[in-house]
Amino acid sequence: MKDRREASSPVAGANSWQTLPAIALVALGGLVGSLLRWIAVDGAAPLTGWSGWGRPGLLAVNVLGAAVLGWLAAGASASQSRITQRHYALFGTGAMGGLTSYSALAAVVGIPRSSGDSVATAGAALGAAGYIALSLALGLVGALAGWRLGEATLTGHGRGRGQKK
């Protein structure tokens, strides 16, 4: 009888990732995650008035995605977890991979805001560097917070209700 989790971590058993069902799960998750990113970043831009590299939607999806990935990774790495390799393929690699985008971050930082304008000007370059640094720092904080939450809720190793410090 196969272990329900199929592997002790999302990267263990790499050959099983090459199966058609796993590929379909990643593709389905990526479709949903990419659509959600488009809604949050580009679709909402006309409603919020935000455009260019200062878009809060892109920052929000990257931080949220890092937190969810941290949560999933903590659960997937536990020996007794409800997070299976298929869950990780669908929600981690697929949905969160599609939702988060550091390539979109690089693109919106580098896109000129008007004809003749470039991010190469000193003020714009500093603002772009600050936005990238903020995105990375908050992403790391989100991933760590997600990991801690995953330990507490998925692995039984955290300090849950009724446990003493």
Automatic annotation (TrEMBL):
Highest taxon of source: Bacteria
Compartments, record wording: Cell membrane
Membrane-spanning ranges: 20-39, 59-76, 88-111, 123-147
Membrane topology per record: Multi-pass membrane protein
Reaction(s) catalysed by this chain's protein: fluoride(in) = fluoride(out)
Pfam families, per the entry: CRCB
Activity regulation behaviour: Na(+) is not transported, but it plays an essential structural role and its presence is essential for fluoride channel function.
CC annotations in GO: plasma membrane
Chain sites annotated for binding Na(+): 97, 100
Record keywords: Cell membrane, Ion channel, Ion transport, Membrane, Metal-binding, Sodium, Transmembrane, Transmembrane helix, Transport
Keyword Hydrolase appears in the UniProt entry: no
Entry's Gene Ontology molecular function annotations: fluoride channel activity; metal ion binding
A biological process term (GO) from this entry: cellular detoxification of fluoride
UniProt xrefs under HAMAP family: FluC (MF_00454)
Similarity-based family: Belongs to the fluoride channel Fluc/FEX (TC 1.A.43) family.
Role description: Fluoride-specific ion channel. Important for reducing fluoride concentration in the cell, thus reducing its toxicity.
Name of protein: Fluoride-specific ion channel FluC
